[in-house]
């Protein structure tokens, strides 16, 4: 399955929670848009604005849960599917543990991509019940419990996912939760947080503490050194993905002015207990500079640090044409560029390739 095939069930569940009158299976009816948009705006302000709704208790409210299904569920699904390309060596048919799962967009996104079986843990039974209703035959089991009780899921897991969860956990408890996860020896922990400075930098600080305790950052990081983005309070690390948003997301974007119909952005981190293999000449794109006259500038990161990669417009050539297509989160191999004064300068003969 994919996101498009899940939309009719998703709309059906949201309509029930929000008491909408009903409409087509792939979009909102004209009479539904106003009420749905108001619910999304209220939840958005509480999650992104004042942030008083960034708690597990939020989704015990039917209106908030319905708004989540309409707006954030599809986005989280798309972000997780995008983030899977960052995680190295995931097995087919993995055992998946989704902690703080809510209505399970992360678990179902992974099951749709890789198959296997998943356990979703959340403190809200009403949110978990929506996840079960949306599973549509996927092998999803749910446990009503706090995140700290992850060991009750049974056995070891190949992939543990925590999507938008750190913000709900007191900072003093985050490290202990990570170290207690029932992860297999070759397993991975996938974390996603909103692409905001506050949440993104908190994730990077969490990463550095994990590395001090014997974890390895397997993605998107290409270094096991302290994160260079934390050196400046203006920096953090995000990824972005193009997607084909469902029709109802486009409708809600038009009604609210919120923009999720043009792409999704998120802050990702993959941790494991096994050291990744380093590859020379490989960089991760971590930022795109605003347009500049006569040149293009990206921010890239590797074991050599976080530095700008610059190409003058006059040096554009077939060898470096890939430069124009790069987006945040992409891997790029750069050959023949000159590293001077902490700037990687590409010329007409420099090669820029995606691995």
Distance between the termini: 28 Å
Q: Helix tally?
A: 8
Mean pLDDT across all amino acids? 92
Label the structural class.
alpha/beta
Labels describing this entry:
alpha/beta; 7-stranded mixed β-sheet; 355 residues; single chain; 8-stranded mixed β-sheet
Description of the molecule:
The chain has 355 residues and is an alpha/beta fold. 31% of the residues lie in helices and 25% in strands. The protein is built from 8 helices and 15 strands. The protein has helices spanning 3-18, 33-49, 62-83, 105-114, 125-134, 171-179, 197-212, 247-256; strands at 95-99, 117-122, 140-144, 157-163, 183-193, 216-219, 239-241, 264-272, 282-288, 295-302, 305-312, 331-335, 338-340, 343-346, 351-353. Helix 2 (33-49) packs across helix 3 (62-83) and helix 3 (62-83) runs parallel beside helix 4 (105-114).
